[in-house]
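Feature request, filed as a ticket because there's no other form

It would be nice if the structure record came with a short human-readable summary line next to the C-alpha cells. Right now we just get the raw output. Example of a typical job, pasted below so the devs can see what we mean:
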Amino acid sequence: MGYESFDAYASEYDSWFIENNNVLESEVRLVASCLQDAGEILSIGCGSGLFEKILSEKYGIVVTKGIEPAAAMAEIARKRGFDVTVATGEEADYGTEMYDTVLFNGCPCYMQDLGLALRKAYAALRPGGRVVVIDVPKESAYGLIYNLALALGTWEHPLLEGCSPLMPYPIELVKQANWRTTAEKIAVIEESGFSNLQFSQTLVASPHYSHERVEEPCEGYDKGAYVAIVAYK
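Raw output as currently delivered:
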C-alpha cells in the first residue's frame, strides 16, 4: 500500500482531528485507559505524534519511540520530540524484548499483513507485556459508513446526506483503508501468540452525532466505532 496520501495530508491531519475535538478526546481517553502502567511503549503507525503528545500532556503517559511509514507525518512527530523510524509496521525492526507495550492505534486498517506486525510486536515485548490494537471495526457504524463512502467514491452523495459525520475523514485516506471486523482481529491476535484478550470501546453515538460530546470508554466491542483490544504475551 502506498502512503503518498498521508504525506499529502500531513499538514491537514492534525487540523482535522483538532476541529473534531470531541471525537479526538473520546479516542484519546480510550487509548489512555489501555495504557495505564504501560511501562516502555513503542507506537506503531504513530502518524504526526498528535495522540502521543496529548497522552503525555494530559494523562502523563509518555511515549518516546514510534514507527511511521509516511515521511511527512514522521517529520511532524520528530518536531514534537519523538524518536520515529520511517518504515511500515510490516517492514520495521521492532527489536527483541525491548518494550512493555506495543501500541497499534488507528493503523491496523492500513496494514496489508497485520499478522506479521503482531508477530514482530510479540517478539519485541518483554515477558508479560501487552499489545494494544485499536481501530474502527468493519461492522461498526463508522466502518459501515466509511465503506459506503468508499464504494461511492465520495462523501457528496444523496445516500450519505444527513447521516455522514459532520466533518468526514478525507476520502483519499478512506480509499487507503481496509477495515477488518473485530472477529478477524481477534483471530490474528490469537494466532500471533497473544492471550487474555480484553476489550473496550468508544464512539457509541451515531457518526452523525459523535462530534456533539466527549464519550468515556466502556467495556466490550459490540456497539462502539472505536474498539481497543488489549492482549498479553
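Something like this underneath would help us a lot:
The first strand starts at residue 41 and ends at 44.
The chain has nine helices and eight strands.
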